[in-house]
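Exercise 7.
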Amino acid sequence: MVKRLVILILSFSLLLIGVTACSGMTSGKVFKIGISQLAEHPALDSAREGFIEALKEAGYEDGKNIKIEYQNAQGDVNNAQTIARKFTDENVDMILAIATQAAQAAANVTKEIPILITAVTDPVTAGLAESLDKPGKNVTGTTDINPVDEQIKLVKELVPQAERVGILYNSGEINSKIQVDIAKEIVEDLGMTLVEAAVSNSNEVSQATQSLMGRVDAIYVPTDNTIVSSIGAVIKAANENNIPVIGSERGQVDAGAVATKGIDYRELGKQTGQIAVEVIKGKKPQDTPIQKPKTVTLIINKKAAETIGLAIPEEILSKAEEVIE
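Solution. The predicted structure, written as tokens, is:
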């Protein structure tokens, strides 16, 4: 009888150990997540909020069974590197890196801590993964690759007479260069010319926008962190010259761009958070595919169009999932 009881106790103990191992968390341990965000602007903020929301929906709540530490690099790559080293020194259990340069900084300092990425356009070109399907490293998450072709076509639909399209971007951001190359090819296919205005920091955005005035019929803004963090300056200059701005995500449209056919960063953040839950439970990042956005939405800012005297065709308005009056 005693022998049978001992066997039952041992079996039950092993079962508990197995359950704990499958969860990826040690019983009683508070799972630590460090969030490194490259810059502060609506798109990246929304991605972070969506990530935290997905964790909470899965039962992981800050201050209860997980601890989240948020750090913002304020657009400075050196700050992003310092944040990454800080999280590594603190031996956090996971890092969420928001934007390409924040992700690269984290990947440069640790090959062991799981890194979840979001708002990264091309993880492979950025050296973060061997492929989207099988990252092969300690990095997984989501890419915010945009339907640039659909967004450039939207320029032509809204401004049929457009011949020259301006594009603003940070020449030091890999994800931005990729989008510029895509945009150039599509613009030329549509019989237009792309006029580039590159910056190296947010202080140059206003001047770069002014340099496009009188030279373009519309402006396209990609998912560039430097430009988006100063989107107000872009909208102001464009409105003063009655130039429509076509954005690449809803935050830009909320700020005054005329339209976008793009992704919702809050939903992208939630998608990333759902992947993080799988990693917390024991799945290995190197074997977890990096996902593309699941939804693309057409959003029209009718009020912004009226401000510059642009009439939105009824056919386009009828297709929009959301119209800002």
